[in-house]
Structures are given as structure tokens and as C-alpha cells.
Specification:
Pfam families: Bac_luciferase
Shape: globular
Helix content: 40-55%
Number of strands: 13
Keywords: Monooxygenase, Oxidoreductase
Structural class: alpha/beta
Largest sheet: 9 strands, parallel
Number of helices: 13
Strand content: 5-15%
Radius of gyration: 20 Å
Mean pLDDT: 93
Protein name: LLM class flavin-dependent oxidoreductase
Distance between the termini: 17 Å
InterPro entries: Bact_Lucif_Oxidored (IPR050766), LLM_FMN-dep_put (IPR023934), Luciferase-like_dom (IPR011251), Luciferase-like_sf (IPR036661)
Strand order of the largest sheet: 3-2-1-13-10-9-8-5-4
Organism: Streptomyces lycii
Length: 366
């Protein structure tokens, strides 16, 4: 199992004091959070991609390249790379470059995003979101695996004898997750290629994501990549912790109530009942996270959203200390118990290279 955090990079007013961080402060805070993640022993830091206020991470590879230079072990990923509005040629080259600079500590998560206006900003039509995701990824997949590509499609100019540079590190492309909160077509796409499927189940009830992940697992097996249990699954989560539950709820409530993404809707209690959000003690976080396996099966990556809703950086760093010291070590131990030997570990560059070199069975990504 890989454990880590993801950030959406929102610039949100702190409801307890009315202060709004500057874009500069928020960008620097994201870097500080990533460095802290490595310090406390987490495996992954992932950033979103947004091109509109109140968000700042418009250039994920720039941020991840900077973090790569300041870390040694941390896996660097995206929690959304917009496959619909980014040119797949640019994605291929940007992430191959990052892969070299980070010595392979890179993967990425394809997604369509949740901001409708981004489509016309980049010359696309939101009504073509699914076809764009399918066609653009088909091209990206080839660009990383074929030295010379001839290609023609609906949404961009044709390519003739094109070579994306640099070529992937060791001839092995970065591992790809396909992220979705609602679309079975994306689960099907992930299964077709034998890639990972990330269900960012932070907003909707568990039953919805059980259906999506079950579909992905069955189709993964259908396409011959391995058994359903060998499919590569990632999950989202949100936590806020203090030593005792009452303090955690009291401190987090104003942030929840005013958060742009879920404030002024269901109550904190309703939201924690229906979604993975856990506000309480470290033990409560452990207990709830361990229930995910009951619903979704053995999986490979668990990412938590920590730095959002206007929480001060100092508080977020405290949360990461608790996560790294008290929660993740227990989760690692408990998730390892009874985990079948055929279930793959979380994907790494070294594992993908070894799999290629030894022609290992499918199921560890690719």
C-alpha cells in the first residue's frame, strides 16, 4: 500500500479570522506540505491542475519538478492532469522530462476536471468531454511507447513521423491512473489499457464508487491484464484529527461549514456519515479507513486531502505529523494482514522496469 496526500491548491479565506492567503503564500504552502509529507514518511504527494481562481496549481510539472529537487524518496503525482484540454503531445513531453529529473519518482492521474469553463479557454467543447478523454489518451499512450508516430483524429492536427522528446526514462512510461467520480466510460478506459483507476470518493456515497470499482475490476480481467483482484485501485479520503474527537469537530466545523466545495450543504455529521471524511481522533481515522477494504477490496494507493478549506499551514503540518506518526504506520500493518500474495503493490518506476525486463504477469500497472 502507498499512502500520501493530494492537494487541490485552493486559495480559501480562513473563516476563523477572515484572512485570505496570497497566491504566492498558497503555492509556497503546497511545497511545504509536500516536503513535510516526505519528512513524516508518506509515499506520495499529488497536486491538482486548475486554470481558474480560486486555485493556483496551473502548472503541475513546474511544481513537481521543484519538489523533486528538494526530496529524495517521495513519489510525485497529479490528482488531475486534464487529458481533455491539454495537448497529449505536451503531456507526453512534460511528464517524460519530469520523469528524468525525478529519477522515475513520477506518475500521473488523467481526469476531465470539474470546471466547465476550462474547455473553451483551451479551444474545446465540454460536450465532447468523454470523446476527448478517450482520443487524447489513445494518442498519449502511443507517444510514450512508439519512437515514431503517425496519427490522425478528430480533435487535433495530424502527426506524421513525430517523435516526442525526451523518451521515457529507461523506456518505461510513467504509470497512469484514470480518475473519475462519476463516469463508467473512464473506468472502462483504465481497464482497457491495464492502467490504474482512482476513485476520488470524497463527495458521493460509498455505494456509487463500489459500482465503479467493481466495473473496472471486471473489465480489467476481461481485457486480459490479470484477475479482478489484481487490478490497480486508488482511493481518496479526507481527515482532520486531534487527540480527542470533540476538539477535532469543534476546530474543523467552521472550515467545513464555509468550504467552497461542500459548505452550506449537508451538515458535518451527515457528510462524515456518507463519505470518507473523518473528523475525530487518530484511532477513528484508522478504523474508518480500514473499512474501505471491505467495500473496495485490496487496493494500492490511499491519498488524503489535508490542506484545503482555508486551514492554516501550521495546522496542516500538525495534521501531517499525526498522520505520519500515529495513523499510517498502523494502516500499513493492518492492510498487510491477509493481503493475498497475488495482489500487486503500489506502482513504482523500479517495479515497472523489473516487470518489463522479466516479462512478469500483468497486474502491477503499465
Amino acid at each position: 500500500m502507498q499512502f500520501g496526500i493530494f492537494s487541490v491548491g485552493d486559495v480559501t479565506t480562513d473563516p476563523t479570522n477572515g484572512r485570505t492567503p496570497t497566491e504566492h503564500e498558497r503555492i509556497k504552502a503546497m511545497v511545504a506540505v509536500a516536503l513535510k509529507a516526505e519528512e513524516v514518511g508518506l509515499d506520495v504527494f499529488a497536486t491538482g491542475e486548475h486554470h481558474n481562481p480560486p486555485f493556483v496549481p496551473s502548472s503541475p510539472t513546474t511544481m513537481l519538478g521543484y519538489i523533486a529537487a528538494r526530496t529524495e524518496r517521495l513519489l510525485l503525482s497529479t490528482s488531475t492532469t486534464l487529458i481533455t484540454t491539454n495537448d497529449p503531445v505536451k503531456i507526453a513531453e512534460d511528464f517524460a522530462m519530469l520523469q528524468h529529473l525525478a529519477d522515475g519518482r513520477v506518475d500521473l492521474m488523467m481526469g476531465r476536471g470539474n470546471t466547465g469553463p476550462v474547455y473553451p479557454w483551451f479551444g474545446q467543447d465540454i460536450r465532447q468531454g468523454i470523446p476527448l478523454a478517450i482520443e487524447n489518451y489513445a494518442l498519449l499512450h502511443r507517444l510514450w511507447r512508439e519512437d515514431t508516430v503517425d496519427w490522425e483524429g478528430r480533435f487535433r492536427t495530424p502527426l506524421q513521423g513525430f517523435t516526442a522528446t525526451p523518451r521515457p526514462l529507461d523506456g518505461v512510461p510513467p504509470f497512469v491512473w484514470h480518475g473519475s467520480i462519476r463516469s463508467p466510460e473512464i473506468a472502462e478506459q483504465a481497464a482497457y489499457y491495464g492502467d490504474g483507476f482512482f476513485a476520488n470518493n470524497i463527495f458521493w456515497p460509498r455505494e456509487h464508487f463500489v459500482r465503479l470499482i467493481d466495473l473496472y475490476r471486471q473489465r480489467y480481467a476481461h481485457y486480459g491484464h490479470g484477475t479482478p483482484e489484481q487490478a490497480v485501485v486508488g482511493l481518496g479520503g479526507q481527515v482532520f484529527m486531534r487527540k480527542n474527537s470533540q476538539d477535532a469537530v469543534r476546530e474543523f466545523r467552521p472550515y467545513f461549514d464555509n468550504a467552497p466545495v461542500y459548505g452550506h450543504g449537508p451538515s458535518l455529521e451527515e457528510f462524515t456519515e456518507q463519505t470518507p471524511l473523518t473528523v475525530g481522533s487518530p484511532q477513528e481515522v484508522i478504523e474508518k479507513t480500514l473499512t474501505f477494504r471491505e467495500s473496495f477490496g485490496d487496493y494500492q494507493r490511499q491519498l488524503f486531502l489535508m490542506d484545503h478549506a482555508g486551514l492554516p499551514l501550521k495546522t496542516v503540518l500538525e495534521q501531517l505529523d499525526i498522520l505520519g506518526e500515529e495513523v499510517v504506520p498502523v494502516l500499513r500493518e493492518e492492510f498487510a494482514k491477509g493481503r493475498p500474495a497475488e495482489v500487486p503493490d503500489g506502482p513504482t518506476h523500479e517495479a515497472l522496469v523489473a516487470r518489463r525486463d522479466t516479462a512478469a504477469p500483468a497486474g502491477t500497472g503499465g
